């Protein structure tokens, strides 16, 4: 069994230091890794990310993170990512990483993702340059996620997790105003996850959403935005599946 | 008699229109110190209702201060909740 702890949208600032640390220090007892689903800061400043870095440094479990839209606000995503990496975290943007725990290999593919909406109610790559770029940003993100998941499959992981900030499905947005769904996620992420296969998809961003959802390909989705889970993190127990013998990722996801 | 331009549509002059004032408040909350996008601001009759979860007590206090400043004279009801930072008491089994 793999024990996955996850939280997103912790929105730390100078007044947050030490708020999550006591709970995070219990992680070695209950989890094999911690996933951070973006929006770790309020404005994406180095000062704010240093607060996060101190909160997750030397936790005793691997930490894997993606950035969220708030973490981009100060236009220094590389700098704040480096601060988090210096604290020992894996920070993913269109990449994958494998962490080992008790002999099991857990693959995490991560990207911030982006909006655009869901099938039948989504933005198209058409018209004004800024509109096309909006959709292309989502598409690039989803393509990178798919490639990262496929590479993890080739590397023979015992479980693969898709980690995003934006939501791949509408299910976990329930509770948010329908009108803003296109700003909360994109079906392109779910399509990437279903195409490459994954055992679990974890995201944040939708503070008023709900925790549980599923892609149309059958991959479970969990919205771990801290306002949604109402805790410092949630833990998911994932059974270890038999080692993959083929590349039929979508079947593994079912 | 033409009433064009003098009809009371309920909104009043733009500067006093609650809808636009709420929109401007939300822009101010997002762009200010707090970078706050997670607070829902809605009208309830002639009052303003705040809902959502915020990261800390100082954040909640600052939001309330800002809202009361923007909506001087308008009753403001706050249902803002501060995020819970305790460890979970159980795990979910994904069988």
TrEMBL record, chain A:
Residues 2-208 form the Calcineurin-like phosphoesterase domain. Keywords: Hydrolase, Metal-binding. The keyword Iron does not apply. The keyword Metal-binding applies. It comes from the Bacteria. This is Metallophosphoesterase. It comes from Streptomyces olindensis.
TrEMBL record, chain B:
Residues 24-83 form the BON domain. It comes from Streptomyces olindensis. This is BON domain-containing protein. InterPro entries: BON_dom. Pfam families: BON.
């Amino acid at each position: 069994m793999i024990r996955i702890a996850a939280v997103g949208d912790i929105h730390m600032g100078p007044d947050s230091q030490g708020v999550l640390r006591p709970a995070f220090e219990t992680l070695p007892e209950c989890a094999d890794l911690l996933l951070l689903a973006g929006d770790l800061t309020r404005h994406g400043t180095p000062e704010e990310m240093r607060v996060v870095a101190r909160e997750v440094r030397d936790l005793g479990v691997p930490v894997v993170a993606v950035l969220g839209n708030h973490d981009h606000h100060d236009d220094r995503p590389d700098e704040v990512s480096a601060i988090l990496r210096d604290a020992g975290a894996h920070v993913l943007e269109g990449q994958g990483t494998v962490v080992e725990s008790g002999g099991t290999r857990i693959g995490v593919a991560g990207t911030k993702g982006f909006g655009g909406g869901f099938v039948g109610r989504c933005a198209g790559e058409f018209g004004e340059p800024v509109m096309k770029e909006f959709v292309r940003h989502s598409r690039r993100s989803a393509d990178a996620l798919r490639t990262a998941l496929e590479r993890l499959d080739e590397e023979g992981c015992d479980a693969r997790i898709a980690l995003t900030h934006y939501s791949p499905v509408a299910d976990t947005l329930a509770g948010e105003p329908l009108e803003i769904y296109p700003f909360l996620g994109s079906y392109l992420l779910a399509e990437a996850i279903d195409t490459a296969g994954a055992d679990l998809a974890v995201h944040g961003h939708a503070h008023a959403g709900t925790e549980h959802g599923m892609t149309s390909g059958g991959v479970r989705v969990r919205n771990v935005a801290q306002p949604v889970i109402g805790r410092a993190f949630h833990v998911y127990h994932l059974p270890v599946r038999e080692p993959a013998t083929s590349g039929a990722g979508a079947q593994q996801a079912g | 008699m033409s009433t064009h331009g003098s009809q009371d549509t309920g909104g009043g002059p733009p500067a006093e229109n609650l809808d636009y004032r709420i929109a401007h408040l939300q822009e101010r909350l997002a762009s200010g110190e707090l970078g706050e996008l997670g607070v829902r601001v809605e009208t309830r009759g002639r009052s303003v209702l705040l809902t959502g979860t915020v990261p800390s007590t100082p954040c909640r206090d600052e939001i309330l201060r800002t809202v009361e400043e923007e909506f001087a004279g308008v009753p403001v009801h706050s249902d803002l909740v501060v995020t819970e930072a305790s460890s979970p008491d159980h795990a979910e089994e994904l069988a």
